Amino acid sequence: MIIVGIILLLIGLFAKIAIVWTIGIIVLAIGLILLVLGMAGRAVGGRRHYY
Questions:
Q1: Mean pLDDT of 6-34
Q2: Is residue 45 part of a domain?
Q3: Has residue 10 been placed in a domain?
Q4: Residue 47 forms beta bridges with which residues?
Q5: Do the Cβ atoms of 50 and 35 come closer than 8 Å?
Q6: Would 34 be classed as within a structural domain?
Q7: Cα 35-5-21 angle, rounded to 5 deg
Q8: CA–CA distance, 6 with 29 (Å, rounded to integer)
Q9: Tell me, what's the pLDDT at 28?
Q10: Could you tell me the pTM of the whole model?
Q11: Does residue 9 carry a pLDDT above 80?
């Protein structure tokens, strides 16, 4: 999710499409939250690690 978020951010930035840029930020934030929860040892979506 983090990589998809970064790709969407770059596409939105270079193509000047605001909605793609916004979706990229949201996907990136969700990916980072899941990464932090997984690294903290908390089960996310039935998995012990999410990365």
A1: 90
A2: no
A3: yes
A4: 44
A5: yes
A6: yes
A7: 140
A8: 10
A9: 92
A10: 0.74
A11: yes
Write out the two tokens for 12.
Answer: 């939105």
Q: What was the pLDDT predicted at 29?
A: 93
Pair of tokens at residue 11: 């596409």
Overall domain count for the chain: 1
Whether residue 12 is contained in a domain is answered as: yes
Q: Is 47's pLDDT higher than 90?
A: no
CA atoms within 13 A on the CB side of 1: 15
Write out the residue range of the structural domain in which residue 15 sits: 2-39
Place of tokens 């793609």: 20
18: Cα separation from own chain's centroid:
17
- DSSP secondary structure string for all residues of 22-46: HHHHHHHHHHHHHHHHHHTT--BTT
At 20, which amino acid appears? Answer: V
